[in-house]
Amino acid sequence: HATSAFVIGPDATVAGYLLRPSDAEAVVADLTRWWSGESSGVALEDAWVRTPTPGARVTAGYGTLRNDSDRTVRLLAATSDAATDIQIHETFTRDGLTGMRPADVVVEPGDSVVFEPGGLHLMISGVAPDATEIPLQLSLSDTSPLRTHVPVRNR
Q1: Model pTM?
Q2: Is residue 19 predicted with pLDDT exceeding 80?
């Protein structure tokens, strides 16, 4: 027989489980990673946020999202207490005009996705012009949230 369990994490998120006795070890490992903020083989490397231009309300975030796990991971959202909004965008050019559009980021096992100027990036609104670092949380499918602190710099 199975038992239902709901756990509230340190970031006030809720995880629900339908437990069978054979699942206990995997669930405990998953909850331990979730509670500690570990990302189960997914890492954000060389991340940085561009210093906001004086008077500008938006800036961008860059880095490399690496997936060393054995499963495909999708970036669902990005949030920060130091920003009013974060959107996942990609830059594109069509008919000689450059624009931005929402992007769907999927990282296959063993692969990386690069966020860089002129390409995939996090569009970040509301960062203080004198910020030197922002906390960043990436919500990922099939894994715990990835929490990190990202430096703010000119490049």
Answers
A1: 0.74
A2: no
Amino acid 150 reads: V
Q: Do 49 and 108 form a contact (C-beta atoms < 8 A)?
A: no
Number of Cβ within a 10 Å radius of residue 55: 6
- Has residue 112 got a pLDDT over 80? yes
* Distance, CA of 42 to CA of 73 (rounded, Å): 8
- Strand, coil or helix: what is 83? coil
- Structural tokens at position 26: 């995997």
Q: What is the pLDDT of residue 143?
A: 73
Distance (Å, whole) CA 73 – CA 127: 27
In the numeric block, the tokens 């909850």 are attached to 31
List 62's β-bridge partners, or say none: 48
Q: Nearest 5°: phi and psi at 73?
A: -125, 135
Tokens of 127: 């960062």
